[in-house]
Design a protein that fits this description.
With about 375 residues, this protein is an alpha/beta fold. The protein folds into two domains: about 170 residues, 3-Layer(aba) Sandwich (Rossmann fold); about 190 residues, Dehydroquinate synthase-like, alpha domain, CATH 1.20.1090. The chain contains 13 helices and 13 strands. The strands form four sheets. Strands 1-2-9-6-5-3-4 form a seven-stranded mixed β-sheet, with helices on both faces. A two-stranded antiparallel ribbon has the order 7-8. The protein has a two-stranded parallel ribbon with strand order 10-13. The structure holds nicotinamide-adenine-dinucleotide. The site of nicotinamide-adenine-dinucleotide (NAD) has 31 residues, from helix 2, helix 4, helix 5, helix 6 and helix 10.
Length: about 375
């Protein structure tokens, strides 16, 4: 199948989506300028796929860094470990990094590639649904600060994305559902027909029908590629991709990173955004119900945690990168398939949402 393309002129890059791609040397070779390659992965993914990637890289000089795995790895310490290996192995500016794993590996390895010798190339090989549909595309790299999510980072585009949908077979149920949160997000923020399609095919997606998963990855990547091609640095339309994220990042940071998965927090955040939009009559109550109903059917949370008070939310949301001079800005739906970034919302309606959309719930959110 033809790859999708993120059209960024001389930095355009392909996104390959399909089965059995991880071990295909022909997908890596055109994007490697030199013979030195550092594969960054985590312990779980290393066991599953590192050998295949090493074989695909042939007789190049291949080193690897294996992180423990999970959100706790998204630190400057992890970046330092990667840079230490690049320095110790005397990797030069034509070396490449391969980010093999979920969004954590991709964000950390991409950031190390962005800063090592002011930037070397990297290939994204996403192995979670969340990373395949979202984090591997678009060039946002970085790590968390104890006081806020993704506060340290850089824009650095990969030279290629290899999304092997066969890898999704081994994902835990919880990680699969967290990835579906981002898929549903695309339907709400950009494409009403895709939202209908997800509603109709959710059972098959949950049953891991590979054809359906591949279609959801492909359509999500098409949307992300289109948006990023228009607005690489998030001066405008790209902000719409952050639907649910201002609420979601507050949940992730407020509950200690890793307790709620990123996708779970985005799911709750998307429901909170829909609730707020419905309170202001921007969308109908029926559309808000549809969004929340689909998220519930996917076994994802439709509320934030009661452990965070409305004041906690407001304090944490003011730290969001989209805030301007301390004023919160939110991405809110105007219809299913249409969203806007705005600071112009009714603060009383936001207070109502923060009061109503909290519940005494704990992950995992499905039976
Ligand atoms: N850069 C961006 O544009 C962007 C966009 C969305 C999310 N993100 C970031 O992505 C991160 C979340 O990514 P994630 O959900 O992939 O988390 P993750 O990288 O922590 O992976 C989740 C878990 O799945 C395991 N795993 C990975 N692939 C597997 C496989 N094929 N089979 C079995 N287990 C596997 C990992 O070992 C890990 O334990 C967050 O830090 C979030 O902020 C970044």
């Amino acid at each position: 199948m033809q790859p999708l393309v993120v059209d960024l002129g001389d930095r355009a890059y392909p996104i390959h989506v399909g089965s059995d791609l991880i071990g295909r040397s022909d997908l890596y070779a055109p994007h490697l300028a030199g013979l030195q390659v550092l594969v960054v992965t985590d312990a779980t993914v290393a066991d599953l796929h590192l050998d295949r990637v090493r074989r695909a890289l042939g007789n190049r000089e291949v080193a690897s860094v294996v992180l423990a795995g999970g959100e706790a790895d998204k630190t400057l310490d992890a970046v330092s470990r990667i840079v230490d290996v690049l320095v110790e192995r005397r990797f030069n500016r034509s070396a490449a990094v391969v980010a093999l794993g979920g969004g954590v590996v991709g964000d950390v390895a991409g950031f190390a590639a962005a800063v090592y010798q002011r930037g070397i190339r990297y290939i994204q090989v996403p192995t979670t649904l969340l990373a395949q549909v979202d984090s591997s595309v678009g060039g946002k790299t970085g790590v968390n600060h104890p006081r806020g999510k993704n506060l340290v980072g850089a824009f650095h585009q990969p030279v290629c994305v290899i999304a092997d949908t066969g890898a999704l077979a081994t994902l835990s149920e919880r990680e699969l559902r967290a990835g579906l949160a981002e898929v549903i997000k695309y339907g709400v923020l950009w494409d009403a027909e895709f939202f209908d399609w997800i509603e109709a095919n959710l059972d098959g997606l949950l049953a891991r029908d590979e054809g359906l998963l591949a279609r959801s990855v492909r359509r999500s990547c098409e949307i992300k590629a289109e948006v990023v091609s228009q607005d690489e640095r998030e001066a405008g339309v790209r902000a719409r991709l952050n639907l649910g994220h201002t609420f979601g990042h507050a949940i992730e940071a407020g509950m200690e990173y890793g307790h709620w998965l990123h996708g779970e927090a985005v799911a709750a955040g998307t429901c909170m955004a829909a609730d707020l939009a419905a309170r202001m009559n921007w969308i109908s109550a029926a559309d808000a119900d549809r969004v929340q109903g689909l998220i519930r059917r996917a076994g994802l949370p439709d509320r934030g945690p009661a452990a965070l008070s409305p004041d906690d939310f407001l304090r944490l949301m003011a730290r969001d990168k989209k805030a301007v001079d301390g004023g919160i800005r939110l991405v809110l739906p105007r219809a299913i398939g249409d969203t806007v970034l705005t600071g112009d919302f009714d603060p009383r309606a936001l207070a109502g949402t923060l009061e109503a959309c909290r519940a005494d719930i704990e992950p995992p959110f499905f039976d």
